[in-house]
Specification:
The complex is a heterodimer of chains A (about 290) and B (about 160). Chain A has 11 helices and 15 strands. In chain A, helix 9 runs antiparallel to helix 10 and helix 10 runs antiparallel to helix 11. Chain B has about 160 residues and is α+β, with helices and mostly antiparallel strands. Classes of the chains: A alpha+beta (about 290), B alpha+beta (about 160). Chains A and B meet through helix 2 and helix 5 of A and strand 4 and helix 4 of B. Bound molecules: flavin-adenine dinucleotide and FE2/S2 (inorganic) cluster (2 copies).
Chain lengths: ~290, ~160
């Protein structure tokens, strides 16, 4: 294994300190879990001159519910998020947090790194998309808050400038008459990248679905919402045939590619299957 | 740069290059050989150790990242009663063949049983899903962990 190229290591203790380093150093990369960045540095994808470790910035480490928003600080790990009371209210995100990688990866990896890495297969993305999540981005000059849909600009591409840090992920607390679920398929059961993944969110008034949200991973250039499919579920009683119709339609709203993990046709088939499983699991949970 | 941390209960101070991985610092500078280098990409689990009590893969950490932390490897758990039960159960159940995965497996199994004294077979599988074994086919390892859970003497 080629050694990680040499760089200067910085471990700021405050957010202000971290932002200042990001704004003044050239060719700089932040690191949290390192579960994406370290392999990428070993493989030569990135060769930063400076690495800014955010793990000592105490003010970025939290998961809390605040004024109707569930807020996740940048350095909260998958395991820390899964153990928090706030995230118990989003079953889809909880599903993803307990599925990603392995215990070792979940003890280090973060949603921040998962989103910034911007893989179309990022498992935290579909659950956050169905919750209409936003991300908070800071630099020396400004703070901006953007919808998660605007963060992804292509496969492995995001809209951050070199001097910017993602500091928080947040979404509205799901109402009690709602539920969600996340399902994925990999080449094997444990410890693998998703070939396709699907998240579903439903808000019910009695038997009627008043709000439906659907998102997929690994079927387009970025993780995506499927609003045409959502329209087929909203203001309906979600009978088996309505669900089957929407799942069938999902095939036409995704644009998968063929690669080493699966063919485009297989991925379309799996969209149909996983969306049905996710919707059924969500409905089961709402009752 | 100098890194100061607690290794198996002893304070240590090591001079490293910032791009050195934790597993290399332990093996090359500190003579800790239970952490193995397999994939060096976080995928095989052979380099697993406990960082402030939680299992992590030491090939994905930079040496300077453990400044001020507690690092525990198999060497530091030699006299730990739970680890003794696990070790004996691994030997008696034939859960070791070449032994390369064993230190990592023991650390992951230790963390699992420490937090959950009576795991189901499914929970054992989830607990060791980040550790790959090329020899045993996993069945005997899962049996060994379940067997160790039976042996644990309540304190
Ligand atoms: C063995 C293994 C299994 C895995 N399994 C899965 C899986 O099942 N599903 C899945 O989706 N992923 C998986 N991954 C990928 C990875 O673990 C996740 O994407 C993880 O969540 C990344 O988080 P991190 O904190 O480790 O990111 P890091 O590696 O620390 O950072 C990732 C990127 O984000 C940048 N960055 C970090 N913090 C910030 C910030 N605050 N602002 C701006 N940029 C920032 C870094 O510079 C880097 O480019 C796996 C990885 C490994 C090694
Ligand atoms: S060597 Fe660290 S996980 Fe394989
Ligand atoms: S005993 Fe050989 S790899 Fe597990």
């Amino acid at each position: 294994m080629r050694p990680t190229p040499s760089f200067q290591y910085h471990a700021p203790k405050t957010l202000e300190g971290a932002i200042e380093l990001m704004g003044t150093l050239e060719n700089v990369k932040p690191i949290i879990g390192g579960t994406d960045l370290i392999p990428q540095m070993k493989e030569g994808v990135f060769s930063p001159d400076h690495v800014v470790d955010l793990n000592n910035v105490a003010e970025l480490n939290y998961v809390r519910e605040d004024n109707g928003l569930i807020c996740i600080g940048a350095t909260a790990t998958h395991n820390q998020i899964a153990a928090s009371d706030a995230v118990k209210k989003s079953q889809a995100l909880l599903d993803a947090m307990t599925m990603i990688g392995s215990p070792q990866i979940r003890n280090r990896g973060t949603i921040t790194g998962n989103l910034i890495n911007a893989s179309p297969a990022a498992d935290s993305a579909p659950p956050l998309l169905v919750h209409d999540a936003e991300v908070v981005i800071r630099s020396i000059d400004e703070e901006r808050i953007i919808p998660l849909t605007a963060l992804f600009t292509g496969p492995k591409l995001n809209c951050l400038e070199q001097n910017e840090l993602l500091t928080e992920i947040r979404f509205p607390t799901p109402p009690v008459n709602s539920a969600s679920a996340f399902k994925r398929i990999g080449r094997r059961k444990a410890f693998t990248l998703s070939v396709v993944s699907a998240a579903a969110y439903v808000e019910m008034e009695g038997e009627r679905c008043v709000d439906a949200r659907v998102a997929f991973g690994s079927v387009a250039m970025t993780p995506i919402r499927a609003s045409e499919v959502e329209d087929m579920l909203e203001d309906k009683t979600l009978t088996a045939s309505i669900i089957a119709e929407a799942c069938l339609a999902a095939r036409n709203h995704v644009h998968p590619i063929t690669d080493v993990r699966g063919t485009a046709e297989y991925r379309k088939d799996m969209c149909e299957v996983l969306l049905r499983r996710a919707l059924e699991a969500a409905l089961e949970r709402v009752r | 740069m100098i890194v100061n941390f607690d290794l198996n209960g002893e304070p240590v101070s090591v001079e490293v290059e910032p791009n050195m991985s934790l597993v290399d610092m332990l093996r090359e500078e500190l003579g800790i050989n239970s952490v193995k280098k397999g994939c060096e990409l976080g995928e095989c689990g052979a380099c697993t150790l406990l960082l402030d009590g939680s299992p992590v893969t030491s090939c994905l950490l930079l040496a300077p990242q453990v400044e001020g932390c507690h690092v525990t490897t198999l060497e530091g758990l030699e006299k730990n009663s739970l680890m003794i039960d696990l070790r004996e159960a691994f030997i008696e159940n034939g859960a070791i063949q070449c032994g390369f995965c064993t230190p990592g497996m023991l650390i992951s199994s230790y963390a699992l049983l420490r937090d959950n004294l009576h795991p189901s077979a499914y929970q054992v599988k989830k607990g060791i899903e980040g550790n790959i074994c090329r020899c045993t086919g996993f069945t005997k390892i899962i049996e060994a962990v379940l067997d160790a859970a039976e042996r644990i003497t309540p304190e």
